[in-house]
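Box 3.1. Reading complex inputs
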Amino acid sequence: MEGSGEQPGPQPQHPGNHRIRDGDFVVLKREDVFKAVQVQRRKKVTFEKQWFYLDNVIGHGYGTTFEVTSGGSLQPKKKREEPTAETKEAGTDNRNIVDDGKSQKLTQDDIKALKDKGIKGEEIVQQLIENSTTFRDKTEFAQDKYIKKKKKKYEAIITVVKPSTRILSIMYYAREPGKINHMRYDTLAQMLTLGNIRAGNKMIVMETCAGLVLGAMMERMGGFGSIIQLYPGGGPVRAATACFGFPKSFLNGLYEFPLNKVDSLLHGTFSAEMLSSEPKDSALVEESNGTLEEKQASEQENEDSMAEAPESNHPEDQETMETIFQDPEHKGPKERGSKKDYIQEKQRRQEEQRKRHLEAAALLSERNADGLIVASRFHPTPLLLSLLDFVAPSRPFVVYCQYKEPLLECYTKLRERGGIINLRLSETWLRNYQVLPDRSHPKLLMSGGGGYLLSGFTVAMDNLKADTRLKSNASTLESQETEEPAAKKRKCPESDS
Amino acid sequence: MRIKENHSVIVYVDDYNMELVKLKNEGIITNRKGIFLHKDIIGKEYGHKIYDTLYRNYIYVLKKSPELIASSLKRQTQILYEHDISFICLLANALPNKTIIEAGTGTGCLTYALASSVLPYGTIHTFEFNQERYLQVKKQYESFYNIKNNIIFYHKDIINYDFKEFKEGTIDSVVLDMPNPWLCIKKFHNLLKERGIIVIFLPCIEQVYKIVDALEENNFCEIITYELINKSWSVIQNKKRENGKMEVSQSVHTSTRKNN
């Protein structure tokens, strides 16, 4: 698809304000803490040391705030108008304030009693203020800070927001950076633009970031175009991808292909039989909805796990996830009548997967991808050296690595390979600021821990096809670079296209 | 895909010399590598070597992309770098079929990235009050066939503009790169959808104070301020070690959402 060379189609319908439905994927937000969950009736959810049901969220729009009430139900809470600042009694500085830990007259038991009585958070905070001997002596700023801190602890306001790359990448970086190789969200933002990820492209991606990079790419492409994901092991991990809640139509352009077959594809020795020789592996993919890695991950999960539904230990939940994410038509083994039906289903799914892999192989073999994204825990050099052959000339590629050194080596090897221009090694640092009257300052400098990027553009390799429009005198100048052809021809008889 | 006449392409001389060129049959490019004829480029494939008239040196002709556009337009006054553009696209949720307002157009680098992101049916409404710049960018985009239908250029001062023809609640995001954005924040509240986003790019900290005040007064929530610093490294090959800091640039972004 060549972008919008043709007339733009009908205006996309304005869905108005989307109402949350049963089964939707949402993100719970409390202050700066996020958690991705799937809305399911009567399913207990834990978040920030509280548990509740999401039933009452259904029917509301994104951005609605709720309060957790007794019994675990969520009540919508209107954003209060901030009380107009009455002239509060306050001190000028802290010279007379002694921090002896005894300034709060309410004990832990008193507070617990208040909570048990069902007193609202706001009330508890008010009580704490009144029972603090030093509150009046604090400066206004210190009072604000104190109130904010207590509110954070006792007022449980939860906002339900729509998943997006922005929110999910912030969430993953804060809660489970190890799963995404410590890729900070500004680095991910660079990858999406440097890689020119947009609707209509044919992209190749190899990532071990729980599917976050894949999800970001799918969001940017809006279901238009195609993505071929290369995966190590038995199958791709797509826990983060599920959190986006993409419509099923997005799956039509999503393909996957095993990394261990890439070499044979490049050398022209790949054949359909190679895929069906691994029934065991495919079975693993079916049942664990991802890879062995994911199984290990879910074993380590505590109640504060971030993306609950996809990583749940319940096989039923996993099947549900699989249904939604992997296969739109598939009913799921929940409805299996007998073991025989189950086996038939499994075979059918395996056959479909095999077909998909063959389609992916065909797409890759065209060697005309619009871009390559690599973001994994493996050393990037061997990956790049083989995967770049699938990319058309004049197309971008971006490699993410948690560390700089592997990218340095990659840079050198790419220079040796040739066919690459505009190689850039970069890193972004991020700092957020607290902006309050008379109290503005930077909060946190995030550097080095966000990963590094190597990016560049492909150009035609010199030795594949000598430019036939070249005059004879010019070819003598080029003779050094065009020396290879004979050897290469022997190596890949079928790839000379 | 063959290169066509009247299209704009990126002429790559080396990593630090790139130029945006509109191809005409009779056109000529002159640079340090020699003289290149447009007609030697038209009809060829992207990413292949193109030789000069004396067959001594070559250049590459590349497809446009947000990064290459930003690099080739760098010579003009610009404080928005590629990494800022990327971060803005993430914060603003620039995605397929969205409607985004941008002010000011400036060199059009950010416009290009936003427009690419909202393909196939989204729209960027971009405002520029300087007539010369408005005409220049508009003309340039005439030959950007992929995205020109997704951009509407306005030669208007967004601060005074009444937005009469825009219906309430139809804009997904607003992106501002202008000296005094606090003067036009108020009108965006009605234009934005629920949970709509405003992203403001500011070079100075005093501007940040002013904009945060204005946002709070106008009932916007979730105000976050970031500073983004880019470091790029150069790798010196024969010594097989990296060089160090080459380019450090800083910029400040404030992003906020419309309150329900």
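In summary: The radius of gyration of chain A is 28 Å.
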